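Notebook p. 47: complex prediction with magnesium ion.
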Amino acid sequence: MTSQEADQQGPIVLILGAPGAGKGTQAKNISKALSIPAISTGAIFRQNMADGTELGNRAKAYMDAGEFVPDAVTNPMVKARLEAPDAQNGFLLDGYPRTIDQAYYLRDALAETGRDFDLVLEVSVDFDEVVERLLKRAEVEGRSDDTEPVIRHRLEVYHEQTEPMVTYYADQDKLVQIDGLGTVDEVWDRIYKVLDEHNLLPQN
Ligand code: AP5
Ligand code: MG
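Predicted complex, structure tokens below:
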């Protein structure tokens, strides 16, 4: 496939970052600006938990403990989601991949359809700020994994398992780090600039 044909399939963007970095918040802005669906593995699990599906029941104990749901559950779920009609003209992945094994799985799943991702955004925010944000969100949304011990554990897991994966993307020259401190609009302005620089905004 030529790169022009790949471009016609629409942008594929990944957003990475620690719990509370603002992935979900900025994913909404990116999704709107690029007219692509924002696919959050965490949101899919939470929806399944709320609906009481078998997938939700399998994910619940891991999520409540701040552990990753096993790849045997997560990877096929992502693959199926990426095969849905609305993901055929590009998509944004929020919170996947999170481990080097998931990154390889995604690479192979995209390669099967002759595709590759365009950009990886890593939103970085310091430890104290994310803890504060998530404790605040706990009061508003009551997410079962937003308790202080579980937040701390999620941050440890991110540091141990996801941060090393970031190097894999940095080595491919498709990684852009975004300073996630500041207001939501300030962070969005930074991301918008990067999307523009990478010619990912719709041309019209
Ligand atoms: P997931 O749902 O992905 O949660 P997370 O990574 O812990 O991140 P959050 O959703 O808590 O934070 P966010 O970065 O989206 O920030 P947000 O925009 O909400 O995953 C949950 C769990 O699911 C995992 O622990 C795991 O169990 C499982 N899972 C998910 N993916 C998996 C995978 N690939 N493999 C295996 N298991 C997986 O912002 C946070 C708060 O801050 C909000 O209240 C927001 O309003 C506020 N905020 C945002 N931006 C700003 C700002 N600039 N200033 C002030 N406040 C802000
Ligand atoms: Mg999120």
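Notes: Residues 148-170 form the longest helix (23 residues). Strands lie at 12-17, 38-40, 91-94, 119-124, 175-179.
Next step: compare against the earlier run before touching the bench.
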